[in-house]
Amino acid sequence: MSSQDIPEENLPAEQEHAHGAVSVADEKNPFADPGLPPHEHRIQDIDERAARRSERMVALLFTVSMLATIGFIASYVAIPHDKSIFVFPIGHLSALNFALGLTLGLALFCIGAGAVHWARTLMSDVEIADERHPIEAPADVREKVHADFKQGAKESAIGRRKLIRNTMLGAVALVPLSGVMLLRDLGPLPGTKLRHTMWSKGKLLVNMNTNEPLRPSDVAVGSLTFAKPEGLEEHDENFQTEIAKAALMIVRLQPENIKDKRELEWSHEGIVAYSKICTHVGCPISLYEQQTHHVLCPCHQSTFDLSDGARVIFGPAGHALPQLRIGVNDEGYLEALGDFEEPVGPAFWERG
Amino acid sequence: MSTTTSTESRSRGKAPAGERIADWADGRLGIYSLAKANMRKIFPDHWSFMLGEVCMYSFIIIILTGVYLTLFFHPSMNEVEYHGSYVPLQGQMMSEAFSSTLHISFDVRGGLLIRQIHHWAALIFLAGMFVHMMRVFFTGAFRKPREVNWLFGFLLFVLGMFTGFTGYSLPDDLLSGTGVRFMEGAILSVPIVGTYLSFFLFGGEFPGGDFVARFYSIHILLLPGIMLGLMVAHLILVFYHKHTQFAGPGKTNKNVVGMPLLPVYMAKAGGFFFLVFGVIAVIAAIAQINPIWAMGPYRPDQVSTGAQPDWYMGFAEGLIRFMPGWEVNFWGHTLVLGVFIPLVLFPLVLALIAVYPFIESWITGDKREHHILDRPRNAPTRTAFGVAWITVYMITLVGGGNDLWATHFHLSINAVTWFVRIGFFVGPVIAFIVTKRICLGLQRRDKDKVLHGRETGTIKRLPHGEFIEVHEPLSQEALHTLTAHEQYQPLEIGPTVDENGVERKVKATEKLRAKLSEAYYGEESQIPKPTVEEYKEITSGHGHH
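Structure tokens for the assembled complex are given below, as produced in the milestone run.
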């Protein structure tokens, strides 16, 4: 759209005035505020044909929105919810989700685009200045409020009758205690619950994947096996809470590679059992490096050396993983020789 | 009296229906006095002013889609066997919360879309608040009279983080459960009461069977209720204070220049809501977010690698990842510093930015109202502080994803962690110094432009062969804009001995204040803006280069 298209009679006479109004730099202060710059007309302000084009554009956007909403309804009805389509370059998508999202997005976006285009091209863009008023009240109002307050306070005699004031403060301060009291039954007291797990003497080590009790021959060098205590089943009501403490990881080391004396004592033929729950903030440890016997918690990267009492060698964990003392029962299955001797999982105040 | 009323009501009888409804409402609600002050209220225009709008609109979108999700979500941890239409998980044990989220994603038509809009809008809401807060910070829009509104906004950001956290924990999937476990471990580290807090929050041992239902009421009622109230208060104050504006011709501290609410702002801001909603809907159509079916139901003994919280919690995650594992045992107790220090740092780092307005106003001692925004370069120390704060935040965020940095860029995870440990202390110092130098450089450039004009790029050859670049003097508008900012002078304690020779006692706080003031506004910390005399001397007569 070039300016030649604008009919002469549409050019407003005010423009001349506006140009003349530009203030000349103040001789005294060249940095002085020259005031609001003159309004510059948009093409739509002076050319009715341009304005009509804008109008048609806005109407088009609103119409597209209407069509998109119809498209949304049609997609909802027509597209089966399990159909998947390939969209380059995104990949496979749920066809229904894709269609509903695009049509809804388009319907909404076009309303917005239409409204903004309308505001920018057709509504007045003359800048207006509004006065600001100080936020704080004038002095007389301030004094009136202070005086009113003093009057009210005096009439209540709260300052004079101290007995009333003090007992009222006491009552109001005490009453929320009832609310605090009511929170007591949110949960039981910790007691020694964090110190005990389901493990006890004679409990078999059951393979988490096969649900079968483990024999020493099931644990190969270099493999990582996860185990749970015998008698804990997925359908049990307290399964989640019990497994959160009892989860075990089992690896087989060469006995001569075990550096820690107690670890060797608590192992069986080089098979060691450690708590799977990280001593940092309780993530399950699941990455095992078979060459170095290091295990790594994937959440915060605490690294433990399983050949040296599972001591921390890197990361934010504060102490070694607890070891479970294991042996073999008469039938040749791996069994626990007791519970963990220290609490499993993250440290806490009473842990000691 | 009665005649006037009757004539009036008769004349109103012919008025358009809309006007009559408005009259009816005015008689009962007094809407006209409210409209008188606000209908043609002026809002200044600048692209950065829409950041707050993004937050408000995404919050509305979150509420709308959230209400829809509550129609289908079961906030229960009862274990059920899954028999829905997502084949890979059929027959698995999972909580009702997880199975109903699968139901929303696979069996409710449009359910997945609404879930994804809800989650995307939450990420955008938090990101919007962060950027909006930085806009307000770097332009000094938090100064009097807006300090309270700054705090409201800050609270919205913090509450938004926790609403987000409780929200993404609800599906009870493997990833979110891991996040909840992290939170439990962090609570356990609190000295003396930590174990009790954890037992009360989870109704016993972790995970128990209560937390989804409890998080649910926190997520859909308690926190959003408070946030809605804060957001309304935030907006009322924006209206009451009137919006800030940048310096420019015709813009003063006593006026506000822009377009009226009706119609321009109504159309632009109202339209912008639909733009934001539309864009988020399209994102939700093409970009998958939180595919809980791929992660599976939560089991405390299982985890996936590369576990990451939503971005706004990455900062807390980073603090806990790079902290060395310090533990102190004494008298049968354990002080878990390795977890407790990050837990304390988390609110402290955030609080640092929240209290900044009060520190700055104490240093300047300025009690006046400020409605003209600062350009960041004109407040070098504040800007440097803000960038240093962002640096701490970002380095910690890197720490929160140290495993991803290691795997994606083939780095050693130990090296990344050590980088973060050192960077946490060194990074902000470097950022502070560099930012301050950049600000001073930009101030010098502005001064040059004012005194010597704009570089035109036109090279002129003088008769004796010298080449010069022609500089064009700035317009008065530009001169005014570049010199409109005020510059504080460093505070001086004054003589410590009064006229009678008696030594005056200078309080330590006063000394500190003078020192900080020197650091903020001393010679090293700002370039004096050009004066009229300098300008006249350079522009008078002799051809300047």
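The first strand of chain A starts at residue 84 and ends at 87. Chain A touches chain B through 104 residues (CB under 8 Å). Further analysis is deferred to the final report.
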